[in-house]
Amino acid sequence: MTTFKRAKGFWLSISLSLIFFAVIQVLIGGGSLNPFYQNTLMFIGINIILAASLHLIIGVTGQFSIGHAGFLAVGAYASAIMTMKLEMPFVVALIVGGLVAALAGLIIGIPSLRLKGDYLAIATLGFGEIVRIILLNIDYVGGASGMQVSHFTTWPWVFAAVLVTIIVIRNFTSSTHGRACISIREDETAADSMGINTTYYKVVAFAIGAFFAGIAGGLYAHNFYIIQPSNFGFLKSFDILILVVLGGLGSLSGAVLAAILLTVVTTFLQDYPETRMIIYSLVLIVMMIYRPQGLMGTKEITSMFKRKGGSSHENKNTAA
């Protein structure tokens, strides 16, 4: 019965998502959405992918990473090389960008994920800066001047990438592998004593998160006509981190809601940079004072629609 309810809820969510996609596509095709609103939709989708991918690393596995912009940069430049230098199809470029970012995640993850807390944060921050400096000094991709990229990112591509990202990360979290990652977040020592290969699962979560960050990088690169290493500094990593913290550590729904909220606020206040940063900072301060657990805490939005008399087993499944 529980399996049937889950399947029903899954297909209902997919159906509503496809209806939303169709409505937006009709509005775009009919000219009701001007380029500004279309670009805002692209940003929202890209930020949702970034927030969801970092949620898997920090919110689910509990690994404090602040080098996510490095994976975004790797995916952006790898996909741009595939389309602009090697003239490969856009879908191939996106996949390659994701795979190269996942490989980078493995390279940095295997040695550094034995670290914990602040030490891991410093290591990932160093990785992000290393990537940026390397890109600054490679003439093949334009160096500091940046690399010209054709515009291939469209609403269908962004929607498909967001849908796949959320489905994969949600299903991974609900699987036995995801439960192992959650146990690492709750108490790594206890998880290790119970026979869970903590290093393996941390590296897996890191690689999956890096893969989807690379996909977001490919979409990001091809949404503009030029990409530069300065777009992927450590402040970009903090922007992505804020999405996860504001939404609630351990809540995929919260990460998605925070990505939508902050992207809309940032976009519509971009003409007032001073005011935007003041409002942005005040929102974060108020949130951390009055609701430090974030918008959703560790709950998912689906838990709001469950009956109060539901079993405790079902309530536990909505966490993280």
TrEMBL record:
Membrane topology field: Multi-pass membrane protein
Key words of the record: Cell membrane, Membrane, Transmembrane, Transmembrane helix
Compartments, as annotated in UniProt: Cell membrane
InterPro entries: ABC_transp_permease, LivM-like
Pfam family membership, one: BPD_transp_2
Broad class of where this protein is predominantly found: membrane
Matching CDD domains: TM_PBP1_LivM_like
Transmembrane segments: 9-28, 40-58, 65-84, 90-110, 117-135, 155-173, 200-220, 240-265, 277-293
GO CC terms in record: plasma membrane
Gene Ontology MF annotations: branched-chain amino acid transmembrane transporter activity
Entry protein name: Branched-chain amino acid ABC transporter permease
Biological source species: Peribacillus butanolivorans
